[in-house]
Amino acid sequence: MELLTMLAIGIIGAGVHLLLSKKTRSLARILEIILLWALIVNGLQGILAFAGHVFNGPAIAKSIGWPPGNPFQYEVGIANLGVGVLGLMCIWKRDSFWLATIIMMSIFNWGAGIGHVIQIIQFQNYAPNNAGLILYFDLINPLVLIGLYATHAVASGEDQEIETDKVKEAA
Questions:
Q1: What is the pLDDT of residues 82-140, one digit of tens each?
Q2: What is the Cβ-side half-sphere exposure of residue 101, based on CA atoms within 13 angstroms?
Q3: One-letter-per-residue 3-state SS of 93-129
Q4: Which class for 35: exposed (0-12), middle (13-18), buried (19 or more C-beta within 10 A)?
Q5: Quick count: other Cβ atoms within 10 Å of Cβ 44?
Q6: What is the C-alpha separation between 69 and 34, in angstroms, rounded?
Q7: First and final CA of the chain: distance in angstroms?
Q8: Which residues are within 8 A (CB) of 146 and not within 5 positions of it... i.e. 6 or more apart?
Q9: Fewest CB within 10 angstroms: 22, 41, 59, 60, which?
Q10: 68 vs 40: CA distance, rounded Å
């Protein structure tokens, strides 16, 4: 449910941002806003995961199919905090910072997703937060972020070419 709420926040946030933005709505600008909100949502998700693992560890462990009181949960929580802070910092930082954040989020998500799959195969762990929506999020989220980033980079390059052509025509 939390992931669906985050998805709704991202869609609504990006939509409102697009409506209120005074900049020209080029493809690059639209993709920039969607990517920004995807990173913000990932940041919020990381902060919530941190809070869950660190402050509500036993319940979170149970929902993942892990034994409560496992000390590594604190470490997973801190890693989530780092990913969350990176995602939220994307509000103010752009360009290569976004790429570095996407790389970190992708490594973390795919690593977690592989861990979930191993838990399913080796231990038949079908707990909701191991084999449920979080598994799909961990495997698909990096593809979405990488795809948005790459498409935005291509669209930004095309916008630059169009602007250059307009300047040449005006001269």
A1: 999 999 999 999 878 999 999 999 999 999 999 999 999 999 999 999 999 999 999 99
A2: 29
A3: CCCHHHHHHHHHHHHHHHHHHHHHHHHHHHHCCCCHH
A4: buried
A5: 18
A6: 38
A7: 56
A8: 102, 106
A9: 22
A10: 30
| Closest to 112 in 3D by CA, of 59, 72, 54 | 72
The encoded tokens of residue 47 equal 């902060």
pTM score above 0.85: yes
The 10 Å Cβ neighbour count of residue 20 is 7
- Residue-wise pLDDT for 68-93, tens only, equals 988 889 999 999 999 999 999 999 99
To the nearest 5 percent, what fractions of the chain are helix, strand and coil?
85, 0, 15
Among candidate residues 51, 52, 23, 53, the one with its CA nearest the CA of residue 36: 23
Residue type, 41: V
Of the candidates 55, 65, 59, 46, the residue with the CA atom closest to the CA atom of residue 6: 46
d(CA 145, CA 33): 12
